[in-house]
Amino acid sequence: MVLERIYMRNVLVIAVVIYLSSCVSNRRINYLQNLPGETPIELEEFIPYAEVDYEYILQPFDIVDIDFASSNEELLKAFEYKGANNARMGGGGMAMGGAMDIFYFTGYSLDKDGYVRIPKLGLVGLAGLTEKEARDAIQLAINSYFKEEVDVRVRIGGIRFTALGEFASTGTKVILKNRATVFDALAMSGESNILAKKNELFLVRQYDGGVKIHQINLNDRQLLASPYYFIQNNDILYLQPMQIRQIGSGENLSTSLQLGISILTAILFIYGVTSGIF
């Protein structure tokens, strides 16, 4: 009888440990906390943006929007593909956040060698340039062909990023802004799953000639002053699942209780069978 009591006590201890391990601490869930060891950032405190020297560099297969302005309307038509201006004015059925980029039908796509083909101007190399440098390159090409002044504007077709892992909605998406934060990306991809490792958001960022992997902690309020607070074109965001995913779901108190009760019931049943009670 004493042995049975000891056995039952051990069973209950094991069940409680398993149950507690199935619960997810709020510290692993809540965004923008003042974490231990970090300098606290208080409410209403001004947080300056981190200085980032890096500007996005155009790469092969990027899509850019190129606009021309001149007092001579006939001159402008020489630089546009047939139907492109109408599609731009009418919207062209382009979808935000879907598989299509905002300028997919009206923009200019860089080929594998980084060139765009512009009517009358021919091939203009843009890969390896910033937006401003690309505008200057096109402006220089126009000035060499036409005497009349033509203004040029070059824009990337929004900020394209890819969300993978524990998001409500994964895939490639486009934010129609010149600047967007990592939380803009999270909002567009859907609230991240409660079982995601919010302290280990991997950001894969493309640089001229290669890529780097950066790790972001969404739980940490210091993220607001991080150079990775703003996302950039062609970023990849990957949220890993917690290990708890392997043994079940602990998304809220109800599911955690159900999991704990199920485990305890199974243990008691096995005990009953092995001890001859059933």
Describe the structure.
The chain is 27% helix and 23% strand. It is an alpha+beta fold and 278 residues long. It has three domains: 2-24 and 246-275; 63-156, wza like fold (2-Layer Sandwich); 159-241, Outer membrane lipoprotein wza domain like (Outer membrane lipoprotein wza fold like). Strand 3 (115-118) and strand 4 form a beta hairpin. The chain is elongated.
Set down the secondary structure blueprint:
Elements: H1 2-21, E1 63-69, H2 73-77, H3 84-90, E2 108-109, E3 115-118, E4 122-125, H4 131-143, E5 151-156, E6 159-165, E7 171-175, E8 180-181, H5 182-189, E9 196-207, E10 210-216, E11 230-231, E12 235-241, H6 253-275
Parallel strand pairs: 6-12
Antiparallel strand pairs: 1-2, 1-5, 3-4, 6-7, 8-11, 9-10, 9-12
Helix pairs in contact: 1-6
